[in-house]
Amino acid sequence: MPRICLYPKDVATLTGRSYDAAKRLLRRARQAAGKPQGALVTVQDFCAYTGLDVAEVSTALNT
Q1: Is 10 helix (H, G, I), strand (E, B) or coil?
Q2: Each residue of 31-61: pLDDT tens digit?
Q3: Is 38 left (phi over 0), alpha (psi -120 to 50) or beta?
Q4: Cα(22)–Cα(20) distance, integer angstroms
Q5: Measured between alpha carbons, how far is 41 from 39 in angstroms, rounded to an integer?
Q6: Phi and psi of 62, rounded to 5°?
Q7: Are 61 and 9 in contact (CB under 8 A)?
Q8: Pairwise CA distance, residues 38 & 61, whole Å
Q9: Which of these, 1, 18, 22, 54, could form a disulfide with 12 (CB 3.0-4.6 Å)?
């Protein structure tokens, strides 16, 4: 089953950033999507914020 939500460890792996920097990036993506604190961030939300390609991120997560 394909994953649709991102966690800080995923963001750290995808971007090469530290875990703490990945948490901050994920927090900013959540805020940009207008989601409340604690809400899950989808691949689409993250890609819309960072400009990354949804297909590439999905492929990297599901392999």
Answers
A1: helix
A2: 999 999 999 999 999 999 999 999 999 999 9
A3: left
A4: 5
A5: 7
A6: -95, 10
A7: no
A8: 21
A9: 22
